[in-house]
Amino acid sequence: MRYDGKHKRNVCVTERLSKHFDWFPVCPEVAIGLGVPRPPVHLVESYDNIHALGVEDAAINVTRALQAYASQCVDQLDDVSGYVFKSRSPSCGPGDTDLFNVEGEVIGKTSGIFAAVVHDLLPTLPLIDEMRLEDPAACEAFIQQVKDYQSAMRGSV
């Protein structure tokens, strides 16, 4: 669910991958108590740290809440074999989210706060964003990575 209350349903994700996997939708922003609609958030680098701050109100800082929720989720991801993130999201973008300086200028790309923690704590978990899944080769590769991950996890139990 987007910050403005609109959905970004992706047919490739919901229909193609549903043939292979069960889905568990997660919205970190809603989980940490932000409403729908909610104020937009962006990533700002300040003093070598990245913060998830309100676009219109920089006093809104959800960085620690997103980090804590991601850590909590990782502790509960025993049965999860892959993760589809939302591209360019300040919480869930996997490396393609705009990073701003304190003056509001884009200075690069980075991962969203939630996605970064999930990746740091589960570095072998297959991760992808919904935009990359629109490429049939990337989609098939992700499906195979998830199946391989499932096999490896079953073998380690």
Automatic annotation (TrEMBL):
It holds the Pfam family 2-thiour_desulf. This is Uncharacterized protein. It comes from hydrothermal vent metagenome.
